[in-house]
Amino acid sequence: MENRDQGAAQNHACASCKQQRRKCDETCEMAPYFPASRYSEFQNAHKIFGVSSIQKILATAAPDQRQAAAESILTEGNARKNDPVHGCLGIIRGLNAQIQGLERELHIMKQHLELCKEKEELDGKKKPIKRRRLAA
Amino acid sequence: MENRDQGAAQNHACASCKQQRRKCDETCEMAPYFPASRYSEFQNAHKIFGVSSIQKILATAAPDQRQAAAESILTEGNARKNDPVHGCLGIIRGLNAQIQGLERELHIMKQHLELCKEKEELDGKKKPIKRRRLAA
To answer: What is the pTM of this model?
Structure first.
């Protein structure tokens, strides 16, 4: 029975234990954060951080923050895999460029809207005021 | 003379050699990318990557890309220091939230502008058409 359980545990080893070719059971502290389904992502993270750094980051986070910490570790690993030179900085720069583009677009749009409103005031709003004055 | 040169090199050890308490001279491959002035940033990066990973990232980058790679390594170290749980992912999520806010603002602005233009058409453009017809 014990052997069968161990076998099952090995088959369902978490990404970290699979990477280190270790047995994985319910006492494994990495298993809740790095399931086998994220093995290739874990490998990306492992390449740049190493297991000890990953464990250290998880250990210094509060228990309810460990899932978020694991997610950030996998994101950095994936980013470095996709862009070995720039890693996350490539994503950050891309997003910053997108923000600058949107801010420029918004600025132009505001100018258009101001012009449109000025024109609207010139065209439409003077007439009712005049009418009201005449009526008084 | 040799001792004096070594002394000078030690005083100007790059961030990596300073961190590892090694002598640093003009043959040091880390010195161009991690000057002593960025020592504390290097320490942040060292804590999560370790020297061997940093060297590996630099080595796999083309020579003209190594400065960019070093910058990304320091950025990730700083991000993890500032936000030990989320690291760069915290920055990425913040920027994504900023983008969503700008896109919402832009969408609203576009609706305002459309309304303004529709009103402008209703108020102003019909009259010149009538005048033109009368003139013909």
So the answer is: 0.81
